[in-house]
Design goal:
The complex is a heterodimer of chains A (377) and B (374).
Chain A: H1 14-36, H2 38-41, H3 52-64, H4 67-77, H5 87-108, H6 129-155, H7 159-192, H8 207-233, H9 240-268, H10 279-298, H11 307-331, H12 345-368
Helix pairs in contact in A: 1-12, 3-5, 3-11, 3-12, 4-5, 4-7, 4-8, 5-6, 5-12, 6-7, 7-8, 8-9, 8-11, 9-10, 10-11
Chain B: H1 2-12, H2 19-32, H3 37-48, E1 54-59, H4 65-72, H5 78-85, E2 87-91, H6 99-112, E3 118-122, E4 125-126, E5 135-136, E6 139-140, H7 141-150, E7 154-158, H8 160-164, E8 177-178, H9 180-183, E9 189-192, H10 199-212, H11 225-228, H12 232-235, H13 239-244, H14 254-257, H15 276-279, H16 290-293, H17 339-362, H18 370-373
Parallel strand pairs in B: 1-2, 1-3, 3-7, 7-9
Antiparallel strand pairs in B: 4-8, 5-6
Helix pairs in contact in B: 2-3, 3-10
Chain lengths: 377, 374
Amino acid sequence: MSSHQPLGGKLINTQFVILAIFALIAAIFLAERFIFGLGSVTNLNNGYPWGIWIAIDVVIGTAFGCGGFVMAILVYIFNKGKYHPLVRPALMASLFGYSLGGMAVVLDLGRYWQVYNIFLPWYAQINSVMFEVALCVTAYTFVLWIEFTPVFLEKFGIENLRQKLEKVLFAVIALGVLLPMMHQSSLGTMILVAGFKLHPLWNTNLLPVLFLVSVAAMGYAIVTFEALLSSAGFKRPYDTTILNKLSGIMLVLLIGYMIMRFADLIMRGQLGLALAGDINGNMFIIENILFLIPIVILINPANRSKPRLLFIAAMSMLFAGAIFRINAYLVGFEPGGGWNYFPSVPELLVTLGIFSMEIMLYLIFVKRLPILHRVEA
Amino acid sequence: MNKLDDFKAVEKIPGNLSRREFLKFCTGVAATLGLSSMAGVRIAEAATSGNRPPVIWLSGQECTGCSETLLRATHPTLESLILETISLDYHETLSVAAGHQAEAARQASMEANKGKYILVVEGATPMKDGGIYCKIGNKTMLDHVKESAEHAAAIVAVGSCSSWGGVAATSPNPTGAVGTPEVLPNKTVVSIPGCPPNPYNLLATILHLVTFKKLPALDDIGRPIFAYGRLIHENCERRPHFDAGRFAMEFGDEGHRKGWCLYKIGCKGPETYANCPSVLFGDVGSASWPVGTGHPCIGCTEQGVVFEKSIHELAKVENLTPPTLFPPIVEERGTGVTPASAAVAGGVVGAVVGAGAVIASKMGQEPATESDSD
């Protein structure tokens, strides 16, 4: 008997329909984008060639998809088997985060029909950080699907193949840890190469490290967030013992992150810009308050087993990571020359639709596939 | 000791070049040819070996511009290389000998090096009235070319005049001038057109011949593909302006001063095959070629373009028609926040925060254990 089981239950309910409507709206705007081009739907321009489809759908979307790899580190590298019940849901969230992130890249490519050229070795520009990210994200998406294959095999009772796959899965999992660490830090490098266009509050050589450490914290936060949410939503018991330990790890990462972040700003002498009162300074303050909230909550060990506070800490952490990325990619990015950018309504609705689709897929998967661990009633 | 001897041998041969400079030059030549850097070493070996191929350089209806470009538009040490790499046995401008003495030297060299010498022809050959409109040493150019080509190992037509007639053959062409390939219809003639051609294209062709004992790959009208395989338009530094529809409309206007595409003031880059934008002229760095300095290309390497079309006439765009829709020259600098987008963005963030708050409020404040949730 497997230790996981599908939840069962009706697929179509009110939430599902609302999500489906958002996804449909996004689909309509995407049809417009593919017929009339990016300019007809987005506010992208030559000063801001990357908008929220990159900053949110790809950079934040894949960051939200980092639950899988941080859980894999914990379970398979540090060999902490007790966290195992959370691996599959985390893996699934990663699967959606990355598959949809990869899809979002294609949506944002002006000449998307050329995308296959990235994978032709004779065109490879191995010094390009964007090339590394493109290749890594693609490879990791495949790796995630392979890591997730046992779930399908279990569902459809193909035991023989599943056992064979389990024997080689360790190699895939190792790759599945390496790849996201490579490209999640490179997402920081990718905006750092914009050089002077990046505001000093985010323009630091530590940016790749900050991206990596914050993404690991976000990974644990998303696992906590989803576990609590599915427990509350599906009326299942809270996994508080595990989440308690996870939040401890998150706290260490967060404190490390904040020390690096502020030591760097002080050493570069740029901390004063936070109080400049402009949009950059204010967004920086919001970003770091959101980072501080989980620290303040989790520093008291007693709070780590209270679902409500854990939930607030995880959510704040996710917001903090998201705002940090929006700040680095959009707010702190100043191309000069009078350019400005704010996402258009269709752009926002497409992003909303993509996230809606992610939640819809989550609901379908947990109800129909053996994802969540078995609860002994 | 041996190594030192080798070095000294190489050091002496190319005149006042250091060994490092010389190898650098050979590698540069290899790069011009599109060969690997190892080929540079082979070129260096060939250039320093004792048996330098003799070159007979004929001059017909020409302005000596091709010789000039070879002598001047290069590093100062180049002429010593060209004079000592190849054995220039006959050249009307560069010979010390003159008159009958020079002609005798040519005859002697051709006799001694039968089937081994390289024939370079500069200038067009007049055909009308038995070729009497260009005579050297009381013999027509037509006879000179035919006689010298008879036992040549390779024939190179340098410059546009020699390639197809050039300025001498411009209508009404009173002397019936034609290019060398037309004088020698049964021979393979390598054409290096240009007015003047880039000296590196000639040099690279000759060194290819010396090194590999064969001609470089040629196109259907005898031009080396490494130099004439691509349109100027394809490698032009102003090409993005063409694609974006930013054109200089007259000399000195805003677009011209900003370095926009010169197509509309007659640039023939779109119909001219040559490597000018990549190889440049005069070894003085970027932009040192006609289009780079702000003058439209006149198509000097292309038969039917230079001397036939007027300089400011529009070129025929060979391999690409401009798009019907150009992006605007003055771009809108982006749309800022609108009430609708602000409302949607705010609404989404608000809904997420609100939903989070509602869910959080429903969750237990107290430590929950697996048993009491059950």
